[in-house]
Design a protein that fits this description.
Four copies of one chain form a homotetramer. Chain A is mainly alpha-helical. Among the domains of chain A are: about 35 residues, no CATH class; about 110 residues, Cytochrome p450-Terp, domain 2. Helix content of chain A is about 60%, strand content about 5%. Chain A is built from twelve helices and three strands. Chain A has a three-stranded antiparallel beta sheet with strand order 1-2-3. In chain A, helix 9 packs antiparallel against helix 10. The longest helix of chain A is centred in the C-terminal third of the chain and has 25 residues. Chain A is globular, with a radius of gyration of 22 Å. Chain A starts with 12 loop residues before the first strand and ends in a 6-residue tail after the last helix. In chain A, about 60% of the residues are buried. Chains in contact: A-B, A-C, A-D, B-C, B-D, C-D. Chains A, B, C, D: Its EC number is 2.3.3.16. Chains A, B, C, D: It comes from Salinisphaera orenii MK-B5. Chains A, B, C, D: One of its GO terms (molecular function) is citrate synthase activity.
Chain lengths: ~260, ~260, ~260, ~260
């Protein structure tokens, strides 16, 4: 095995006896007391300090992702905590494991769709109506669901979407991708005859394109935000638990059809 | 199984067709655009909106916990990503699983120690010097390490600690627990003859006591903050990977002593 | 950082271009076709090939741990699968995260208790009755639950226990630890006036002491066995799901008290 | 929410006060002492008791998957254990999280490829040579790697493959899928001019098709088997650790280029 080792390097952070830097900034002197958590997340993930406008919009989109109620993910975390209360971190980890293609994935899907039909270097006079029409037609032909549209509960409007778009607008960050997402919705509702609101993940996907975030980073926002939400659920579970009750009800019901007497 | 079902309830969030509330506030109207991520985390975990002073101190302590360089946890996340790049969430989860008693636990330990020797309802004239002396003597008698003191690299001072204490001070939140932590350090250094700086987890543990946070919540801060840091590591890994190189080096070395030729 | 690197080595397995060895045996020639999965697990975990008697007893104890019905752990795995069906491995991982002190831990606890009160080098004429009496008295004085005793459903006998002890007996492996566990039960029932059957984890804990397995390995048996069980649950979930239904029911109920209309 | 609840049911196991059944068999009376762990896994995952031939072949394929040396997955588990030694289950979970598309996925990929080009109801006189030729041509045209072929170390033969095929043959289970996999290899080597041994995951994928296992179950075998392997690694880590040494070496090296000494 005369393998030549390849270099291993990371540019995120370093420390010496008396200094600690994160992304090129002194943690004690330039970050602590100067950044809020959302801005530091932006720095950690992109390597850049957000402008004030970027800070407002970025904080709004990640905050939207923190808490979605009693989700399958929150339930998995709570049920895990019931068995291993000494390992709070493992309960959060269990909850994160389910943030896959079904729920959080649609955000990433919306961003990827938008980049694909409107590349960042598309000409300034790209015809958004034509693109929207074509996109909807293509998804319908492939019998695929358009990512970011539709919601089982929030109809005809997902209340987060107009607010997120307004915050983007107020901060000069509602450009072509937000516009295009809106036109895709109009086309999709016309073509299907159904209410297909832009849901929060669709709004966030579009705004992420305005930032120029690569598609795969977008799921990362959901994962880090939901970690905060899950800690909240586990703290509530530690005070007012539901895990054991869920277990007993479901076990009783699930096996009643084969269990004697 | 005539078990009487017990009620299942959560007070964190709810939604209807056109409304979404988190901790009693309208997400679109009262949270988005008004909170930064750190303040929302405070709301999610405590149920309260932080004051401006609390916001500054809380953001500083959770930011301190986001990024600690190439930790075992960051390596576990990167190695997981190497095998399952389609499951970013699982890589973050793997990284979180290691945030147990060894590293993050000392923060929780410091808070619990301080609450134990100085309960929140201790009389106003509690003798902090005497408590510090007794605490150090007790730990030494039990041959236990005092949580929150000492650092393998940062000596004689952990550069995060004076900064965190200054931010607490500036915001009126450096009270008896911060004071006591300092006196415990002085006693411990005197008794042991070694440099035992208050490390970042010790500083954070003390400040968490000033907030009145229950001890077990404190590990939750570490877990949620580190989730942000881990997403940053996975994004870097996706662009400039080290996982496969680590694997090959370690595998070569680990089995060289038994592998023929 | 003139740190001297310390050696990194593993003695579990190695491979070259044309050979693969696990625990000193050729995988193709000496293991495949010669071992069953339980025996290979024994080899992997202990470095030794089980005798025929050890094989029968070990297979019985790990099989007992595979499937425990609709547990919190199985539910966490199923709920995770609902969100990330593309990551079967992450659903199993989520399920494993909850195998902590509450359920699986009692097995480890029973083994540790038995080793503590009857060390492996205890004299041949150790008075098991006296030890049992003392052990029960000590636990009662400390108001601690005796690990391995009692079951919410299986009373007055856990049906697995007599069968496991019979298999151990038939294979010459029911020695002092099995005997002692039985006497501790008798003492505990007499002292408390309650039915306290030796449950499966108590039986397994005692048999693990007969093998001489170190206490902390015992939880490992539970984890590896349950991984098999969880794969079975996820396969059933993929064909006949319950995750989404659980989510919807619990979410509805949990927030009914604060949700308008 | 006048939602009509849908039934929740599981057919894997049930228990009453004095009985426990798994897959329709009494755990104490019909399973313990009668099954080995591999056969019980077969029962748990398929609902069927294996024949003697199936038992031999199934045990061989899952055993092959238990231990693959110092893999990224084993390293993730060990690094997790270094931070949370009190949560053995979380370390195994972290290791499992990386069993995604890159390593374990190729097994599932091989099975799916074989089912696709030779459905189980294909006519008895299907021309395997023609199918192999077409399959290789299709993958090459799409510039895709053929799953189950090629190995970085084991060349020109993966030593596990002939042994697995021999065990299948000896037990009457080397039918058309094993045959086809071999012809695909011959075609692929001829077309590419490279050594492309059928690797262990290719051999297992083909044998799984002989069993008729659905494609997605196959990854489940890998996950459950590797859980056993990971417990072995964590036990070794607890006695002869490498996690902290890996961490220190990699951290030193990774940040040397930006760290002021």
């Amino acid at each position: 095995m005369s393998r030549e080792p390849r270099p291993i390097r990371s540019d995120i952070a370093w420390s010496t006896r008396d200094r600690i830097e994160v992304r090129g900034k002194s943690l004690p002197d330039e970050i602590l007391g100067h950044f809020n958590l959302g801005d530091l997340a932006y720095l950690q993930l992109t390597g850049k300090t957000p402008t004030e406008a970027e800070s407002r919009v970025f904080n709004a989109i990640v905050i939207t992702l923190v808490e979605h109620g009693i989700t399958p993910s929150a339930l998995a975390a709570r049920l895990t905590y019931a068995g291993a209360p000494e390992s709070l971190q493992a309960a959060v980890a269990a909850g994160l494991c389910g943030l896959g293609t079904v729920f959080v994935g649609s955000m990433e899907g919306a961003a990827k769709m938008l980049y694909e039909v409107l590349p960042t270097d598309a000409p300034a006079d790209a015809d958004l109506d034509a693109i929207a029409k074509q996109t909807v037609a293509d998804y319908r032909a492939r019998k695929q669901i358009i990512p970011g549209l539709g919601h089982p509960l929030h109809k005809p409007v997902d209340p987060r979407t107009p607010r997120l778009f307004a915050i983007a607008e107020d901060n000069g960050m509602a450009g072509r991708y937000v516009e295009l997402m809106g036109r895709i919705q109009v086309e999709a509702e016309a073509a299907s005859g159904k209410q297909l609101p832009i849901n929060a993940t669709g709004a966030i996907g579009a705004i992420c394109c305005e930032f120029g975030f690569p598609g795969h980073i977008v799921r990362g926002f959901g994962v880090m935000a939901r970690a905060i939400g899950l800690v909240g659920h586990i703290l509530e579970e530690s005070e007012n638990p539901m895990g054991v009750e869920i277990w007993q009800r479901i076990e009783d019901e699930a096996t009643a059809h084969i269990r004697p007497e």
